[in-house]
Design a protein that fits this description.
Layout: E1 3-7, H1 13-25, E2 29-31, E3 40-47, E4 49-50, E5 53-54, H2 56-65, E6 69-78, H3 85-95, E7 99-107, H4 120-136
Parallel strand pairs: 1-2, 1-3, 3-6, 6-7
Antiparallel strand pairs: 4-5
Helix pairs in contact: 1-4
Length: about 140
Amino acid sequence: MKAAVRYYTKTGNTKKICDAIAEAIGVEAKSVDVPLEEEAEVFFLGNSVYAANIDKEVKDFVEANKDKIGCLVNISSAALLEGTYGRMSRLCGELGVNIDEREFHCKGSFKFMHKGRPNQQDLDEAAAFAKEIMASK
């Protein structure tokens, strides 16, 4: 089963999580600046919320690559929110992209909040989540 991992990050937190996921499933995590070259039956997308919404670069990536995404698995990190699934689910619905109902979310450090996150336990949990997703597909 073909899988791919992409992320958008401003602080580096989401990249760390996506690198752990990619290593666990044997692929390379890349920025949303890199389009999908081929169909990804399972597509892990790392994102966060900036200014109360998913960043335009993430939206543009999903729209441009929607025909190559079999099932999107949402990965989020945020200091204040408990996840980005609702926002990503709405976007996927608008674009006709299948989204898995499971999400991996990790608190991300931001200024004085959640210092040291994601930590090794978070990265281990992200890797285990990715393996579970792949085993269920």
